[in-house]
Design brief:
339 residues, alpha+beta, four-stranded antiparallel sheet, 10 strands, 17% strand
Length: 339
């Protein structure tokens, strides 16, 4: 999730864990600080753009390593707070903050390596967008009211945590509902062949009303959108080339192998101006993606690997028109997405 959300979650968990054993502002402050610590791994340069992307949310987001690190961090926090005698409670609070950070990140589609060092599997439920105000606002409201004091201050913070957690539960249910519509659509259209298709269902930006769907086939992928307010029983998809013909030549490149595993196969290869571009299809929408890497140039003969460079982003996007489409499409108005 975004940094503001992780700071808010850390502060809320810190207040809940510390209770009345310290000043609320101290619990919120150190909770917020610890809530952002795991994301400092983004400052590490692992050598190239693909490695930097796939190594983000690695050791610093491992449940094992954050548990191991929490006593030392808690000792520093207890000393800095002037409360060395309260070390055990600070240990609990710091551990809870560090533990919930990667669990929340795993609810997004990016990929969080929770099980390191035992497994580097990138977990990603994909039921919430990286920025979702409906998750973050209850946390911020609960913290703000709690810091104002009063006999029920702690209850408001707990209520904020409860509402944000219930929202995560709602997002999973909504995601499963949309996945059911996708399977029905593919079954009605493709029959038994639909069983071989891989399906990705993720929310559109900032909400859980509108969902983006990617269906991977052997020779193409399809993109469609489904609002929970749509009345049609099935969905409409647009098909795009996935660069299947390039996989024999480019599939052995280390960057391609790594991204194929990290994205669970939801990637595209394409030749652009004599260069091979490797695109993560999970984050973004046609034709704009957050991560698209140049990994090779076309030579004579064969391909020549280059150090991966991210050329993805929103260049050329009409942001105002896209937000207008997003709002209307989320309300169930059947509009083609901007291209």
């Amino acid at each position: 999730m975004d940094s503001v959300t992780q700071v808010a979650l850390g502060a809320a968990v810190g207040i809940a864990a510390m209770g009345r054993r310290t000043a609320l502002w101290k619990a919120a402050l150190w909770g917020g600080v610890c809530g952002t610590l795991p994301d400092l791994d983004a400052l590490i340069d692992y050598g190239d753009a693909v490695m930097n992307m796939t190594r983000h949310r690695a050791e610093s987001h491992s449940l094992f390593w954050v548990t191991l690190a929490s006593p030392a961090i808690a000792w520093l926090v207890a000393r800095a707070s002037g409360e060395p005698g309260n070390f055990r409670r600070w240990w609990l609070a710091v551990w809870a903050v560090l533990f919930t950070h990667p669990l929340l990140d795993a609810m997004t589609v990016y990929g969080t390596q929770l099980a390191l060092p035992f497994s580097d599997h990138p977990f990603g439920v994909g039921s919430v967008f990286i920025i979702d105000p409906l998750y973050t606002l209850p946390l911020l409201a609960g913290i703000a009211i709690a810091l104002r004091g009063g006999p029920s201050a702690q209850r408001w913070n707990v209520l904020g945590l409860a509402l944000s957690t219930l929202y995560l539960g709602w997002s999973v249910l909504a995601q499963q509902h949309v996945a059911g519509v996708v399977r029905e659509t593919l079954s009605a259209r493709d029959g038994g062949a639909a069983r071989d298709a891989r399906i990705l269902v993720t929310p559109a930006p900032f909400n859980t009303l509108l969902w983006r769907v990617v269906v991977m086939h052997e020779d193409r992928y399809e993109e469609g959108f489904r609002s929970l307010l749509d009345r049609a029983p099935t969905m409409r998809f647009d098909a795009f080339a996935n660069g299947h013909a390039l996989r024999d030549a480019a599939g052995t490149l280390p960057a391609v192998r790594r991204m194929a595993r990290f994205t669970h196969g939801f990637y595209r290869l394409a030749e652009l101006d004599g260069r091979i571009a490797l695109t993560d299809l999970r984050m973004g929408q046609e034709p704009w993606y957050s991560f698209s890497f140049v990994v090779a140039r076309v030579g004579n003969p064969g391909l020549h690997p280059v150090s991966p460079v991210n050329v993805g982003g929103r260049r050329g996007m009409d942001v105002e028109a896209s937000l207008r489409w997003l709002r209307r499409r989320a309300l169930g108005i059947d509009l083609a997405p901007p291209r």
